[in-house]
Design goal:
Shape: rod-shaped
Number of strands: 0
Distance between the termini: 75 Å
Structural class: mainly alpha
Strand content: under 5%
């Protein structure tokens, strides 16, 4: 099947839009990933992967 020039242009425009939205999604996911890593970093420094507080079954006052 051969596409007309108009169909090729329309397909190209659709592809460019898809790429644009994919890049926006990637940027948002990278920002979220950075934020989550920043939240985890202080916990990893103390060797923990869970938040501190009541009911976690241990204490740092041993």
């Amino acid at each position: 099947m051969q596409m007309t020039p108009e169909q090729l242009v329309a397909e190209f425009k659709d592809t460019v839009l898809d790429l644009h939205f994919a890049r926006r999604t990637i940027a948002a996911l990278e920002a979220e990933n950075t934020s989550l890593r920043a939240q985890l970093a202080p916990e990893e420094e103390h060797g923990h992967s869970h938040p501190h507080g009541e009911g976690h079954g241990h204490s740092h006052d041993d």
